[in-house]
Amino acid sequence: MRGWQLVKRPDGMIAESDFSLVTTDKPALNDGEVYVRNTWLTVDPAMRALMGKAEEGYAPPLPLNAPLPGRAVGQVVESRSPDLKPGDKVFHTLGWRDESVGPAKSFSKLPVEADLSDDLWLGLMGMAGATAYFGLIDVTQPKAGETLFVSAAAGSIGTTVVQLGKILGLKVIASAGGPEKCDYVRKLGADEVIDYKSPGSMIDKLKKAAPKGIDIYFDNVGGDHLDAALANARPFARFSECGMIQTYNYKDARQPVPLGHLMRIIASRISIIGFTIYDYEHRLDESRRAMAQWIREGKLKPCIDVTNGIETVPRAFVGLFTGRNVGKTLIKL
Amino acid sequence: MRGWQLVKRPDGMIAESDFSLVTTDKPALNDGEVYVRNTWLTVDPAMRALMGKAEEGYAPPLPLNAPLPGRAVGQVVESRSPDLKPGDKVFHTLGWRDESVGPAKSFSKLPVEADLSDDLWLGLMGMAGATAYFGLIDVTQPKAGETLFVSAAAGSIGTTVVQLGKILGLKVIASAGGPEKCDYVRKLGADEVIDYKSPGSMIDKLKKAAPKGIDIYFDNVGGDHLDAALANARPFARFSECGMIQTYNYKDARQPVPLGHLMRIIASRISIIGFTIYDYEHRLDESRRAMAQWIREGKLKPCIDVTNGIETVPRAFVGLFTGRNVGKTLIKL
Fold first, then answer.
1. pLDDT class for A201, splitting at 50, 70, 90?
2. Which residues are registered as beta bridge partners of A73?
3. Which among B100, B80, B82 is positioned nearest to B90, based on CA atoms?
4. Predicted ipTM of the assembly
5. How close A317 comes to chain B (CA, Å)?
6. Cα of B125 to nearest chain A Cα, Å
């Protein structure tokens, strides 16, 4: 069994050399345990916040020299539990490895939806899809005709938010890095696309893209994007704070972020609302029902970026921060 | 008639020399107009945001060399309107002057509450009281037993929020500048008081005062107080953004404010909610009813800081930013 471990806390930008692929013997199964061969893995930018000292993270830091967790889909090979049998497809969080052994309760059987491919359970039908769904629909309560700004729009969450925005009848302003990603996002339906790598300030670029201002900001970036959203917010704008990838690789997690437009929170009566998907786990059926229907109707398309083989996991993860990926990054084993 | 005018846009810290007291002849009254002699004036820190270039302000900048507005209480001397008669006491916003002439609809008759003194209509029974009331009760939805942090607690809004917090059964952590103000706030009922002028970081001081963190932050200050609140926020904390006095006198209204703990918004699922009292004007009866009852029950005490004479207006206003005032600053004419 091969699995990736964090062997060095990153000092600033995460590097492939911070990880090591460690081979271990498959342990004998205890009563109640199952042995799963993973078929799909995914990497998630939020994990970066748990790799440093992580004082600002969602959870305690990940230990060094121990198997890394991560969302995965696999198939049961051997079972000593009545709950799962060989051949069952499962979703679990014992990823960043090719095979997993653990108690059956750590693995959830995939719902039988014959027409939905397995990898969707790591994307639109999984936590990434639910994050976009609840972060937009529940947190910001959008009304048709409003203007939505979404940052990192070519990313896993962003590609979904752009499409959900159009499904809900919003005007969608999206930011992405470089002409290729901008084209991609435009093809997904974004009405205006901002290349954040082009010259000029984000504030001016957003003003140009949304001259009447924005009603909703779905934040995946933080920093200058957040400041631009503050500067351009219409009265009673709602900000859904999903991620701040711009700051995850700061050398010091507490490096101050300069915001020039904080007073706009008051002047424009903005609500800035932080959320994590963990608070919505009891409502996953709701997002999955909606997402499955939109997928079947052809209104929502999976955007995935696939690499092959367990060896590619750290490269795929680092790529999240160097801007290499488009859509949800998946590793096919 | 004497009234103060802004004669110079402040460059950084506001100064008394930015104002000039101008004498004009009383105009003849037109039909529908009244002539009011003011008895009480007040000054309000939010006005500072309208004196500079005010790109970040609530409203367009105040014009130079024109009578300044401001909340005031007065008595009708002469009337050419059927709606008001000589002797009527009125509330209005034609302040920063000793006498006012204007259409009767610009003046609201004070509700007859024989036991409440006139100056209360500029404090607890006025917009300042309503700001504390709605900013705490409506914006943050406090529950008894929760921990509230309120900044600038010796100020007009702060002294009210401290008392409302205790009425609502909250644990109240308050910040103020210097031992005298801290004593004052402690006597109002605050459970823990932080002297923000003492050595050390606000983050550490707040952590010491609220080791289990805060559920609610009522922000009058912004800047390092806001960052400290982010750093110490418990899950699902609510921030009521009322004012950011720390930044009003920046030379550049857009001077960036460095925040080191923005990721806490997500990790701790914080809601940061901007509001202005203008959005609650239709509900003033609600706050006035509650405030009047608490005043009569002796649970809520007016905290006022009175200077005498129209000449003292700019000094009182500048004092809001140099930390000279305690409670609501009033000018008695």
1. very high
2. A40, A91
3. B100
4. 0.91
5. 20
6. 22
